[in-house]
Amino acid sequence: MTTRRRVMDEIFRFMLMRPADRPDEAEVAVLAPVELDRAQGAGAARRQAGTYLASGHAVRRSDELEHGALALAVRALLATGPRPRADVEELVDERTGGSLHDLLGTESFGTEEGALADTLVATKLVSASAGSDARGLAAVAQGFDALRRAAEAADGSPVGLRPLAMPTFGEKPAPDPSFPTRHVPPTERGGAPSSLPDRQETEAERELAQVEATIADLRRLRAADFRAPAPAGVQGDESGPAASRGERAAPTTAGTVATWRLEARAVERLRAPARSTLSRLDVSLESAGLPVALQTLAARREELLGEVERVRLADSAARRVTKIGSSFLANAPVSGYVGTPGTAIPTGHGAVHPVGIGDLLLVKQHVLRYEGGEIAHVENVLRSEHLSRETRRLDRTETTVLEESETTTEQERDTQTTDRFSLKRETEQTLHEESELKAGVAVTAKYGPFVEVKANADFATKSSSDEATKQASELSKDVVARSVSRVTDRVLQRRSTTTTSEFEERYSHGLDNTAGDANISGVYQWVDKVLQAQVYDYGKRMLFDLTLPEPGTAFVVAQSTDAADDGQHLVEPAPFTLRADQINEGNYRLYAQRYDVTGLEAPPEPFRTLSKPYDGVLPEDPHEQSTSEQLSIDDGYRARFAYVSSAYYFYGGAVWAAVVGSTVVDVLTGSYVDMDGEVGTVSISFYSRQVRQLAATVQIFCERTERAMQTWQLKAHAAIVQGYLAKQQAYESALAEAAAQAGVVVTGRNPGWNRRIATTELRKQALTLLTAQHFDAFGALELSPQGYPQPSLARAQAQMPYVRFFEQAFEWEHLAYFYYPYFWGWKPAWGRRMLLDDVDPEFADFLRAGAARVVFPVRPGFEAAVAHYLETGEIWDGGQAPDVSDPLYVPILKEIQEAQGAPGAETPHGEPWLVRLPTTLVALRQDDALPSWTKVGEDWQPVA
After folding, report:
1. Between 20 and 30 A from 348 (CA), which of 39, 180, 357, 383?
2. pTM to 2 decimals?
């Protein structure tokens, strides 16, 4: 007994491959173009190639070359293999009457050889023939190469043909290291790579590169490049009386001290592009100062970064996703319904031709039944067991963000001034004068023995004078500075965000075998669709056989257009792929807006100027003081320059110096100093002598540290990522919910409607190839003054005969088609196209197809009219549309019957056969027996 086995399914196949053998360099003829510069890289050469092909210098055909026929003859001689050098010499002598060396010595040979290389290389670079016979020119180039090799070969050496090869193109020259490199757009530093080999920079990118280069130039300035303002001191006169020193008041000056201005020589040392950029922004470093210039440049840089990022984000916007079949795909832009055609009615024809006259055989099929196929799942329940299964899927996202920030700044200074001027002068004078005059005469006479005579005259004068003068002078001035200034800056920011996203789906089913006496099983089978197909013969027809690209793409795009929201649309957020170091001042707002991120901190300013004031009055000689304090540098900044501006009243020999950080500054003359990048605090000390009244302000010019910028980038990046993840999770939850609903509702379209969609798309593409137009010339409606669509008489008169000819000249209802796999389509779309699916398997093939073959017949009687069109581009044999008396006239009843598949004169051809198509449906068997099949004739049928 003969037994027959079921055909085994193929598991896999493989091929063993090895690397290709690399030919010897001497065996390959490398083309050497003359007009194309190989040193500038492939991108520059590609642009030169386009210009060269558009010029009149490119070679189109071999007959344009003087030595073209000879080169082709040499190639034909060597086509079967290498030949002796003498054979080539003999052929040259026969054709030209000269030797090989004479031929190569002519100027025309070298010129034509270079022109050939230029044309072939340019054609390859731009991937376009530009009307030239590239294949024939390549054969001529091989002949030229063989002639040159024969001339250089030794006698008796064989000469053969060599394959042609493209030359290599060098890299672009490295940029000048002294000039900053151009700004790299986000798309090239972490985003998706550009699809163009040499993408042209936008105007914003070019200006951004110039602004960043200018900022880099200004950051290289030194303290010596600044112009110091004129001293604001007034010298007192101490040559007069001592009392006059305290009576001269210090002068007051009006106006603003101009600081941070550059010397003219420093401005001239800047590169010309930097000066041009500053001039374009209306910034003068000699009048505006460095802080103003840098702030202006930073603001412009932020604007340009945003503009560049907006261009990049336009290609990665959030996608609205639409359900197509049983899949969700991204939307395409919507278009209107009424408008003016872009072109005139076409007058030409396509480059297709009928494949000939043949029997029109069509396959018709009809659903015969649905039956169980392979096992999809088996659920087992033991005896006396109750199996209950409940599936619960819960996606919950809860995000709570609490942010609190408080800043308090308190400053206290005493500035109380009490002037006390007291002059006390006391004069006390005591005058005592005593004068005494004493005068007397005494005479004594004695006569006796002796005569005694005594006479006395006495005169005395006593004068006493006592004078005392007391004078005291007191001058005093008390200065006590007491000023209380309390500034409290309290910034309190609280941000609380609570996001709760919850999606839940439940599935519950059970098998009750508690009362059973045996084990049971639930067997699930895939459902197969069984159709019966039959070939029908329609007789002789003129047939067209075409292959169409990606027939389902137009339907996919149409389904994903931004139409009214019918519950089938979801919004998929654009992926966020930037790294933290790619977040900048220009793009963080754009991403925050895209992903609904709020409370995002602004980036720290690139530059900041801090200042601290000092003042004093020193009335007592030598008018001397010293003091020191700390100036706090804001977190995230480092000191770059320092300058002390001052006004003072001084005497001869005055000294006033300041120590800022580690640098000594002469305050009297005023100068800028370079700082050492101090962070946190800067120590400031003053010493003065012979300076009676003084006021000074220490200014520290700071620049942002890299660490501060990186810290902000990390915070901003984390916030944006959180926003993106929240939107992505919301989208995935909505998508899962929509997919879950697909299991409880009828999805897809009626298969008959799907076939109409597919055949209409195939007909449209066939007409495009047949007529060499893309239907841009059609649209015969216009809007009335009241806004209603109405026919445009001129357009309708021109367009409608064209429409009628191509609808009636072919039997579109007999269009036969076959779909080829997705990999014949555009490769970047493979990932999406190969996963397209639908409950209608034939329509799923249409959606996934990378190409389709179609065969369609010419309506009997229209053969001559179609042939006339293919030769001249004229419809209706160059005349008007036919009337009822014309053989080409098609009654509308016949057109309707044929479109609806009414039976005609066709006859069955051969025997019918069954076609099984798998579906995505699953059915539960009535019992727990495993399925089996038996062969009936040539068909395998399930056993009941």
Report:
1. 357
2. 0.41
